[in-house]
Amino acid sequence: MNDPSQLRELHGFRLFGYTIGQFGFFLTRVLISIFSFQFYVYTINLDSIYASIGLSVNFILNATSMIIFGVLADKKKPGKHGKRRPFILYGLPIWVITSILIWFPPWFCPKNNPFYLPVAIFFWTTLFLSAISGSCILSAHVSMLPEQSQTFKNRDKVAVWRTVFMIIASVLALMLPLMVESILEDPEKVKWWQPSGKVILFYMPLIGVSFALFGLFTLLLTFFSVDESFHKEFPVNGKDNLSLKETFQRMIIPAKDKKFRKYLSVAYFNSMAARTFGVLILPLLTYSLKFRGPEYMIYVIVSVGGKFSWFYVWKKLRGKYELLKTYSMCLMIAACVGFLELIYLVEILSFEFKVVFFVIIVGTILGSLYAINLFSNPIVSALIYESAMKKNEGDFEEGVSNISGSFFGLRSFTMSIAQAIATFMVGIILTGPNKESSTIITITFAFIGVFYLISVLLLRKLELDPNIIEIVETRKSARKIIEKATEIDDYSQIEME
Q1: Is the model's pLDDT at 1 over the cut of 50?
Q2: CATH 1.20.1250.20 placement within the chain
Q3: Structure pTM?
Q4: Which fold has domain 1-249?
């Protein structure tokens, strides 16, 4: 029996079961988000415009479905299997099936017709169903954490496990497809009718099926390890649960906040930069840098090293200097190395020099991408506190709690829109023969520098009250807000990469 006087925590099997679920889920989600574009455009021969349309709508569906299923879970009455746990089972069958089927298109685009509509419709259908069913699972997984882990110490423990699994998921989801690239006879000729294309047609579905089945196993482990019996024993009054209409209406509150709109513009262009990186990194390795064989593993090493080293650097600097100033430095350095990508247009550069610049450019961009939460989460928390102080209605902490969800919800939605637009933009640019042009790929990759530069200029227009920043850094309620943001944003960062 649950004791209402005891705060709930996740330990042992329940802790492992909860965190391993997201590991299996994101192995598949990252694989589809990044490599389905490469698979359909470069092997199935689907035009990049059609592929980008599917992925763009996929991001928008993810954002809206997360909100919808979150509201449905809040409104659901606890049953035999709990309140939020059943949503894992609701979405699991369709998610697993579509996550497998997407790697087995029943048709290939003819050699002279990359706009073959049956392939596009199949790709879009599997993507959309996967997005909706995946959001059903993810929404339940995210929203149950505050109910399962109710102490700061235990949430710190959960965060460590989550971080470890997320990093492993990001590395594996990138490493295995790159290993396939490394065994290809000619990575630039991978159409379905070419020898290297036939190798991809064998191994990528194998990886996709393995990841999906592993995700099925880990999510079932989450379902059976999480205990929601307290919902029946100590039912929570649901009168404060918002309807779907009220949820969207609440997002108008932060939209009217002038300072928060400035911050959203920064987050928007950061997401544009990150998604551009994610879509173009494999074409960059293959067509611009001419990686072959084991050279693809250089990216894996740079990815892991860049994320950890730059995260450590920015965390140290964040503790010494003012928040916005340090954040501006982070984005400016990312902008500078983004423009440095243009050096690959100089054809006389040796391969060794290109690799050196690759380590600097990609390592720095990835490090900045993963360090952004060090700055963005405290900024949003400060803006939430400032908004709550302006209202000055009733209990202050309750006021913060009432509006925090709408602030983070609007940010998540804005970032999804940015990812959708960036994907569509890259798809239009890479249409036709452009998808194999080293010049086009290199110039488009340098857009990352443009997006980060715009973010820097917009960030300099944002001002924060230093007193509120101090409150955010010290008050426990602010820690709750930041934890809530990090739970959602960690997922977004993995997908964007």
Answers
A1: no
A2: 1-249, 251-497
A3: 0.84
A4: Growth Hormone; Chain: A; (1.20.1250)
